[in-house]
Amino acid sequence: AVWYQIFPERFHNGDSSNDPKVEDIKGSWPHDVNSPYKTSNWTGDWYAYQEWEDPAKDLNYHIQRRRYGGDLQGVLDKLDYLQDLGINAIYFNPLFEAPSLHKYDGATYHHIDKNFGPDPGKDKKIIASEVPEDPGTWKLTTADSLFLKLVQECHGRGIKVIIDGVFNHVGLNFWAFKDIKKHQQDSEFASWFSVKSWDDPATPEDEFDYEGWYGVKELPELREDENGIVSGPRKYIFSAVRRWMDPNGDGNPADGIDGWRLDVAEMVKKPFWRDFRKFVRGINPEAYLVGEVWWEDWQNNKMFNARLWLEGDIFDAVMNYRWAEEVIHFFVDEKNKITASQFDARLKALRNDYPKEVNYVLMNLLDSHDTDRLASQIVNPNDVYDHRDHPRENSDYEIRKPTDDEIRLQKLIALFQMTYVGAPMIYYGDEAGMWGADDPDCRKPMLWPELTYEPEASHPLGGQRPVDQNRFNQDLFNHYKRLIHTRNTHAALQIGKIETLLTDDDNDVFAFRRFDDTQTLIIAINNSEDQQSISVPVPQIEQKDSWTDILTQKSYEVREESLNLLLPGTSGVILK
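Predicted structure:
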């Protein structure tokens, strides 16, 4: 698969009639439904205060209140774009009803957010008519129906769909949490949450206290016992999972989603995930489960070795942030740069950590909604991955647009990503030339070629910055499209083996081959800024006199079992 990650609120506004109103954001930080509010300008200068935003308040306060109106009709309208790019799998950030822009604060698991669908008013009434804990009362809203239409449209184009399952915690608007807030220990859902203390009606204070994700009270955690999430919420989660995997309930999952990305998976005990896998595979034996198993110790920059989740009884894959970190160390870092041979050794170690078949389905991403964008990682080469990658936390962080040289490096990294073992994932807009610091600046509205955007001229801290033209980068898009097409049309890049052919530390050159029984491709990368003349040993088994670069059609002759290549600085070739 070649994955594309869509953050729904920011991908495309295909229907302005469903844009969130101020009452729709009630229950999300900063809990302000009284200040002026409008749908934000899709093409505006990101760090500029909009005319209704109070400049006396912190910019981040306003950015968290902003809604740009991205919706499912917007995704439907842009399926041609994704198909043209060559995408055959989409991962959606949370789609379920929730008041925030990111939707990790679910109000329910069995309805698509009403503002992503065509008739929010009607959907509100439908949801209010149900008994949420009783699946027999559930109905399809207009948003639910549009999502199922989107799944069918994707399947018709050969595109798989997975969605975010946020089952460790919910939001303040979650129906069962609202019930226990109201009825306290008398609520029939009192056992669903990890309550530390109930409110004492005899005092004016509210003593109600509970566990939240990392202590965040906006995100109440579902209660766990030794088997993971307890039976009440577990039953509800499983009913919702079935609803999205086999919507018409006929036993054929073709009309449903193709799998799940499971949020903060390491925070839920493994027995729950084992049962979850059995349940999911019982509905669709081909379903794909990818876990977010990321930071073991963020403070000390230690990521999980996810082996324990990848032994066949829990997940098929994880989001491969460990790989992303090594890629950045080799291609981008200046202070902590690793050599070609170190890079090769670390890649081998990562492959050896996981079962062989797992390596081919790992989600090989470089950035996401939780990191700064790849382009901005390149602009800020000495930052530690996912640490202080925002001007709020690091006043030296550069928010500018990448230069042509920096974009050339992004192209080279994309070439490596598309030719390496595993399933590459593009975060929406990276192929269009988007840049941005960590959350929330990695969640800007998508750049579209048909729209005219204001230049980015404002600085969030009032500092100096260049005035940057903000336009869809057609050349970069074409580069990604060529690479994806190359991957999609060469089985050796998808399921072939890998063998290192050259690591030249002095010249920062790395070459490897991807091969299966019928074909070999040689990938050579010049990671230095200087032109390099390199000699790549060709295995004797390859009885060929000349090799052609798929990207440029340039041919190279084999002499004395070596390919002699003259590679410009920051460039690579894919030879066949």
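Summary: The chain has a mean pLDDT of 97.
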